Amino acid sequence: MRAVQIHGPGAIALAEVPDPTPGPGQVLVRVHACGVCRTDLHELDGEVAIPHPPVIPGHQVVGTVLDCESGALATGVRVGIPWLGWACGVCTFCLAGQENLCERARFTGRDIDGGYAQLTVADERFCFPLPPRYGDLEAAPLLCAGLIGFRALRLAGEGERVGLYGFGASAHLIAQVARAEGRRVFAFTRPDDAPTQAFARSLGAAWAGGSDEAPPEELDAAIIFAAAGELVPTALAAVRPGAAVVCAGIHMSAIPSFPYELLWGERVLRSVANLTREDAREFLAVAERVALRTTVRPYPLEQAAQALEDLRHGRFDGAAVLDLRPARRR
Questions:
Q1: This prediction's pTM
Q2: Banded model confidence at residue 324, pLDDT cuts 50, 70, 90
């Protein structure tokens, strides 16, 4: 099969590799689409370590089941495969319902070959039927941009005024979820990025401006999707006492020193780590109920490296998605 592999920092290549074979408890999936995530870019840049390179990246996988030995998933069923690909089920975190913090967790596209390929193998317990209202390309961003954003929104609390710093794949989905819940969204983009600010307003943002601007109102919560540590004190300065600032990425640049008064007043600064299967079930139920507008930029598998560079430089709105469907399905 054709696949894209990351061999190490800066080294990415298209290759012909053997077809994967599912083992006990696994499914073989024909990949139709795979979202391109900033975590993939962090892996390519060496900011997120790959334990055993080369690896096939990609953890927003949409495809159909070709083989499931146990019969838990029927052949032909369309499933999504997210970042969390396996958890031990017996450690302290797993037993407490925090499998996202499992000490032995394995992640799709990092520890397990992912979806930048024509075929992939996954643990059947970590595959999820997808809402039929979304096409293959439109469903892909739900599996990380949506899931991680949804977990971040829940950890941010129930405040009405929510600030989203970095308006990319996650924020463009979670802004719609927040609006459906009756919240008001304040979108922060790169300074002077008028097109992205207009995009945010088209999705219902009450206000959109640069990350160097103060919002017109004090915020009840803020989520930082951009991998920019300097936004932490900026967000803390924008939220009310008692509010949470949630850092939603797996990697962030260094957070600069800031005065204690920004944190004082029982403000909370926290991170989001990975996701749980319960997050997936809950969010996909929301996506079934709420017609989310997923804005995607498709790329063929051969242009995966270009998709990552376009993501790096913010050259598109919404999410990049690799399209691996046969021509007759497009």
A1: 0.94
A2: very high
- As a whole number of angstroms, the distance between CA 212 and CA 214 comes to 7
Distance between CA atoms of 290 and 285, rounded to whole angstroms? 9
Three-state DSSP class for residue 246: strand
- 8 Å CB contact between 321 and 59: no
Compute the distance between CA of residue 250 and CA of residue 48 in angstroms, rounded to an integer.
Answer: 8
Q: Each residue of 170-199: pLDDT tens digit?
A: 999 999 999 999 999 999 999 999 999 999
Nearest to 18 by CA among 6, 3, 28, 31: 3
How big, in percent rounded to 5, are the helix, strand and coil portions of the chain?
Answer: 30, 30, 40
CA distance from start to end of the chain:
20
Nearest in space to 25 (alpha carbons), one of 99, 80, 87, 82: 87
CATH topology of domain 2-144+292-329: Quinone Oxidoreductase; Chain A, domain 1 (3.90.180)
Instruction: Give the C-alpha separation, 127 to 131, whole Å.
Output: 13
CB 93 within 8 A of CB 102: yes
Token duo for residue 290:
């709420």
Residue 261 near residue 94 (C-beta atoms within 8 A): no
Q: How far apart are CA 322 and CA 307, in angstroms?
A: 8
Average pLDDT, the chain: 96
Q: Give the helix/strand (H/E) hosting 151.
A: helix 145-155
Q: What is the CATH number assigned to the segment(s) 146-271?
A: 3.40.50.720
pLDDT digits (tens, 9 = 90+) for 263-289: 999 999 999 999 999 999 999 999 999
CA 243 to chain centre: 24
Task: Return the domain boundaries, the chain.
Answer: 2-144+292-329, 146-271
Task: List helix spans (H) across 156-296.
Answer: 169-180, 194-202, 231-238, 277-289
**Percent of residues, the chain, with pLDDT higher than 90:** 97
